[in-house]
């Protein structure tokens, strides 16, 4: 067989192309420009994108709090409300100071002061907290003459004003917020509030501390007894649920109906319109200003829920929040006829914290307290 020879295609030689000096220069310049653009993208634009992403995530996560140059960098944003009147400004100042001294460096406090008829001097005293502590902001909400028509009963341990009702308006005053921690002025805070603020309030209106003292007053309102009557002096609000349940409106309606009969104004009215969806804190979170450990055991043995004495002792010695109520308020004089001596532990706690403020000696003078040293 005759072999046929097939010639392989010849490879074409690459035609060399010599760059001119001008072309070489332009190419080097273009490469340098491209390198510079890449550096800008890597070291400027990408970090800005990352910062913007973190910023938007934080804003969404923390209840749409306004994050500004003053608040950027904080992780935990906590809303706290007080009711402020002419009498309690010294006491509230001490409470606010205790909050700021106990917060972590990543926690930012939004204070909302529900007030009316406060003087410029009193406002300056409260404002001093934000001047001394940068991780907080204070907003004043003027309540005007709201609730002036409500009858306010007298109590041997408390002198109430219409300011006690202001808290019930928080769902309307802060329409864009989801929750807030309300504190009476007679509280001291010993730990960062993040844990208590993040307490599970799903499907709840309020979460507070269990009470036992007033359960005997159910017959006044002709309402079946329930076992989750809570104290309203330390109260975590689920603002969305409260708005859905029209609890503020129901509170006002209830109070108007029983105006002349109500024994404990906010406690009674709020519990009776919201108890079906109220929760309560374990003792570790909120402790009443008991005179001693025995008083603490006696109190918690009377609440409707069984609580271990070890829990009570631990909470009493190391609480998150300490609430002065009844005769344990260290600025109150014991009512005549009451066989009560001064409660040493609450007294020491309050004035030790007051000493850390700039108004210590004014507070001693205001409440006619003589302290050695």
Supply the CATH class of the largest domain. Alpha Beta
Question: Roughly how many Å is the radius of gyration?
Answer: 32 Å
Number of strands: 10
- Which architecture of the largest domain does the CATH hierarchy give at level 2? Alpha-Beta Complex
Helix content: 25-40%
Kindly report the name of the CATH homologous superfamily of the largest domain.
Spore Coat Polysaccharide Biosynthesis Protein SpsA, Chain A
As laid out across the biggest beta sheet, the strand order is: 3-2-1-4-7-6-8
Alpha-carbon distance between the termini? 126 Å
Shape: elongated
Count of individual domains? 2
By CATH, the topology of the largest domain is: Spore Coat Polysaccharide Biosynthesis Protein SpsA, Chain A
Q: Helical stretch count?
A: 13
Query: What average pLDDT do the residues reach?
Result: 81
Task: Sum up the structure in keywords.
373 residues; alpha/beta; Spore Coat Polysaccharide Biosynthesis Protein SpsA, Chain A; seven-stranded mixed beta sheet; 13 helices
Structural write-up:
With 373 residues, this protein is of the alpha/beta class. A 7-stranded mixed beta sheet has the order 3-2-1-4-7-6-8, sandwiched between helices. The chain contains 13 helices and 10 strands. The protein is elongated.
Helices, strands, pairings?
Elements: H1 21-61, E1 76-84, H2 89-102, E2 107-115, H3 120-132, E3 136-142, H4 170-173, E4 179-183, E5 187-189, H5 194-197, E6 206-210, H6 218-221, E7 230-238, H7 239-244, H8 247-257, H9 265-274, E8 278-280, E9 286-288, H10 293-300, H11 309-317, E10 321-323, H12 344-354, H13 360-366
Parallel strand pairs: 1-2, 1-4, 2-3, 6-8, 9-10
Antiparallel strand pairs: 4-7, 5-10, 6-7
Helix pairs in contact: 2-3, 8-9, 10-11
């Amino acid at each position: 067989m005759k072999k046929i020879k097939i010639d392989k295609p010849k490879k074409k030689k690459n035609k060399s192309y010599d760059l001119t000096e001008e072309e070489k220069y332009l190419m080097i310049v273009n490469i340098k420009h491209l390198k510079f653009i890449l550096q800008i993208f890597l070291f400027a634009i990408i970090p800005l994108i990352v910062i913007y992403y973190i910023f938007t995530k934080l804003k969404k996560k923390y209840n749409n709090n306004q994050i500004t140059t003053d608040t950027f960098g904080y992780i935990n944003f906590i809303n706290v409300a007080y009711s402020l009147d002419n009498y309690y400004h010294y006491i509230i100042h001490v409470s606010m100071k205790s909050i700021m001294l106990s917060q972590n460096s990543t926690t930012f406090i939004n204070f909302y002061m529900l007030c009316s008829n406060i003087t410029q001097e009193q406002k300056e005293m409260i404002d001093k907290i934000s001047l001394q502590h940068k991780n907080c902001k204070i907003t004043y909400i003027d309540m005007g003459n709201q609730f002036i028509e409500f009858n306010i009963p007298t109590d041997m341990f408390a002198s109430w004003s219409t300011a006690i009702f202001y808290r019930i308006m928080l769902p309307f005053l802060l329409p864009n917020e989801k929750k807030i921690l309300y504190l009476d002025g007679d509280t001291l805070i010993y730990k960062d509030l993040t844990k208590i603020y993040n307490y599970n309030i799903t499907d709840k209106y309020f979460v507070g501390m269990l009470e036992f003292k007033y359960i005997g007053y159910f017959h006044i309102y002709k309402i079946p007894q329930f076992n989750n009557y809570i104290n309203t002096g330390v109260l975590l609000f689920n603002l969305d649920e409260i708005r859905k349940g029209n609890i503020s409106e129901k509170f006002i309606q209830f109070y108007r109906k029983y105006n002349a009969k109500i024994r404990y104004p906010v406690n009674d009215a709020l519990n009776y319109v919201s108890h079906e969806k109220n929760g309560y804190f374990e003792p570790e979170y909120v402790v009443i200003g008991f005179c001693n450990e025995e008083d603490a055991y006696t109190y918690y043995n009377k609440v409707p829920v069984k609580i271990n004495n070890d829990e009570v002792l631990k909470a009493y010695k190391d609480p998150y929040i300490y609430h002065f109520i009844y005769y344990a308020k260290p600025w109150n004089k014991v009512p005549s006829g009451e066989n009560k001596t001064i409660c040493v532990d609450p007294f020491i706690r309050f004035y030790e914290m007051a000493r850390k403020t700039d108004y210590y000696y004014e507070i001693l003078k205001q409440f006619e307290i003589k302290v050695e040293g």
